[in-house]
Design goal:
The protein contains 7 helices and 12 strands. By secondary structure, the chain is of the alpha/beta class. The chain has a 6-stranded mixed beta sheet with strand order 6-9-10-3-11-12, with helices on both faces. Helix 3 packs parallel to helix 5 and helix 5 runs parallel beside helix 6.
Length: 244
């Protein structure tokens, strides 16, 4: 029986006194990969940032539990130490800090770091400032490289394949899929394109609509195909809708 790693119960979140999420219930087991679909503005990124502990996201109801710890008031740095890592949708540049320095700080296994850099075509970038002057694909690969080197039990990935070409998607997807499978790690992945489903073994798909989890079903590819064919409006009328 799998152990519950992330457990979100009846979560409601506000930003600047505006309700963004309401009564969210979502779980991720140890070693499980869950994908999150939803239209723009539905609250997907807000959910990930709330789990991570960013400021400005006020929890007004419910609880977030991770590995038995309640996260509601826990600072971001403590959540990182507990084992949560995030890959940004729009990563910032960090001037004066080399990508290789970040990698060495996150992971002391130099062989593993070197192998990951090679697989992600980032070896020449290790001596460069983090994300400074990187192309869109290079930034995405850099972000994945950093979060992998954290070796965290739970990865939060905000549209890892957005804004990059097919070659980069294939490269990143292969590395991510191998890592999750070999390390038996958990992930909550936001995706619009669904490309990532060709590389990771996701067990469930959740659909977030207007701030609530509208559907929690399997298999993920079936859910994505239905969205592609009929759009999110049909999710509301779907007779196969399942929650929990």
């Amino acid at each position: 029986m799998n152990t519950r790693l992330l457990d979100i119960k009846n979560l409601a979140v506000e930003i600047n006194h505006t309700k963004i999420l309401g009564d969210i219930n979502l779980s991720v087991d140890d070693g499980e990969v869950v994908v999150l679909f939803g239209p723009n503005g539905s609250g997907k990124t807000t959910l990930l940032r709330t789990i991570m502990g960013y400021t400005g996201y006020r929890i007004t109801a419910g609880a977030i539990l991770f590995a038995g710890h309640t996260l509601n008031t826990m600072p971001l740095d403590e959540r990182v130490r507990l084992g949560i890592g995030i890959m940004y949708q729009h990563p910032p540049a960090v001037r004066g800090v080399k990508l290789g320095q970040i990698a060495e700080f996150l992971n002391t296994d130099k062989k593993t770091v070197a192998e990951r850099a090679q697989r992600l075509a980032l070896t020449p970038h290790l001596s460069r400032d983090v994300n400074a002057g990187f192309s869109g694909g290079e930034m995405k690969r850099s972000e994945l490289f950093q979060v992998l080197n954290q070796e965290c039990p739970l990865m939060l990935l905000d549209e890892p394949e957005s804004g990059v070409d097919i070659e980069n998607i294939s490269l990143m997807g292969s590395v991510l899929g191998d890592y999750l499978k070999q390390k038996n790690r958990s992930a909550l992945i936001i995706t619009h394109t669904g490309y990532i489903l060709d590389y990771v073994e996701a067990s469930r798909a959740c659909v977030l609509l207007e701030g609530v989890i509208w559907c929690d079903r399997r298999p993920p590819k079936e859910v994505f195909k239905a969205i592609q064919k009929q759009g999110y409006s049909q999710c509301i009328e779907c007779e196969k809708r399942t929650i929990g």
